[in-house]
């Protein structure tokens, strides 16, 4: 834990007291989004101290030219950047002819932020004394509408406390923005058109290179004591990329003045005419009115929470942590559009480019399968199917592979690889396995096999071809090996025979072969269509199987463990507990050379394999490998603690499971890795959900049935969650005395609890 200023609360993220040192961290933590767009919790008014400005639009990116010290053949030409979108929230404010700026006020008191996760809004309030002696109270509420997802709403209220005040509001829309994270300090937006109306304004701009067109808009209403006073702007200032209106008002001491601002984006992904689309959005929002829009927001979030909430009784910090994770996941992706995916920072920052990683398949899909309609998860799988041609092109052009072998990118926006670190781009090939596993996981959980003959089998064939060609035969070992890779543990680069990579390569080939046979038997027309399209023969499949059946896995018979890679035991094996705390996190304290030579593990490698393929190993094997590798794991990846929490629960190491759960659930709230100001770790938040449902709840799917082995941390009185399993909603309530299973509807559901078959109807109790 590196910060502890967020107040414990079951449903809200709360900060009290103004501290300039916390501003950038809070901008991340109080971020809001609605699946189509999002923004950091920047102040609407001018703020002259350090801040990280950021608004983002789903699917809009820029191909920032790769910047490396030494170019190598095969490097991607660009690194995709989620763009800092034009600013619509800005409202410069003058009070008695002085700018409102919290950095220059003589006093700021009663400062409070609240992110209300239950209802989906962000509120900021404070009292301030300006240099001119005017004292004011301010309350600002902002939300991004889930129903009208191209619009956001701000209500900014000012009450003078010690004298009458002349208040000047200067709302604006501005496309002259830049990214914090840019390789060449290029400008990403080209202004096209400015349009001004009575109380509304539009700036249309497009991205250079990718030519996404975006109209950023605003509509302003000035209120006094809650009533529209029908003020028109006194001045209108505009440039090629910015429009700013000025509204002057006078308000008596103790009375409340306000500006209500509607703003947002319409994009060419969804509109042929973005300006006309923006005018339509404004009309709809104005006709609804602020109160109705807010109520619709509350109702929409209530519907989300009805299915996705996890309750924890007796541990407020744990409860706050899981709800924060679930809230951010739903703010980032709602599954409406198969062109979109889940960036590691979502709408909270620019790090990692806002692109798609293997995190989606390995960690996020289980959450979306269980808490939403299965079509949402199917859309995420379809996203990869739609990019299969690019994955084949990537393997062919960058690696010299042939015959339709597919290497999915480590980082992508449109299917093209756009990660510019060699050891990640070309060595961290295990991501192919996660994509294949997600297809299996989707079918296992939903029972919907139709995706495989319709789309998935082509993906599996491309991936199997890749592994067949990527493996090489070792005469010394008389087995197939995979050389020069990086596993999920990125603290080892260019190593040979990473256990997880080798294992999932074998599994991918076996699974693809099995599905080819199944589709041939059950979907012969699809089988014929696919094999003709990809030119696949029985002889080629036999060649794949030679690799899979004779794959090498590094092991230590002496320790009874699988080796993370061939040379792991050659390292100076000093456990983490003996590492000076002043050296942590090592990725911020050590040279990269020292990190690579150390035994320290960023995240699970061998244990990731045990998580995916739990039924392939005995509990004794898991315990030996867990005890060995956990002692060297520094958990400097956000994806690490959740896997360890789940496996600690399997091994009845409940204190450890609880500790890892707290770390994953409060990773950002408590800033464990000293980096939250860059944005929140959105994709790992799905792992927090897994820590409870799969870890403490012990939920698994085996032989088309749900299995549970419920456990509960001693710190909790009880917990509950819901899952949508094959269109049946099951609620699980666990306390120290019993577990209760309740099914919505009249259809019974057979479940296996601690190895015993039970019929869950309206409810079944397990003591």
UniProtKB/TrEMBL annotation:
It comes from the Bacteria. InterPro entries: 6-hairpin_glycosidase_sf (IPR008928), 6hp_glycosidase-like_sf (IPR012341), Gal_mutarotase_sf_dom (IPR011013), GH65_N (IPR037018), Glyco_hydro_65_C (IPR005194), Glyco_hydro_65_M (IPR005195), Glyco_hydro_65_N (IPR005196), Malt_Pase/Glycosyl_Hdrlase (IPR017045). Gene3D superfamilies: 1.50.10.10, Glycoside hydrolase, family 65, N-terminal domain, Maltose phosphorylase, domain 3. Residues 699-756 form the Glycoside hydrolase family 65 C-terminal domain. Signal peptide: none annotated. Residues 323-690 form the Glycoside hydrolase family 65 central catalytic domain. Belongs to the glycosyl hydrolase 65 family. This is Maltose phosphorylase. It comes from Flavobacterium reichenbachii.
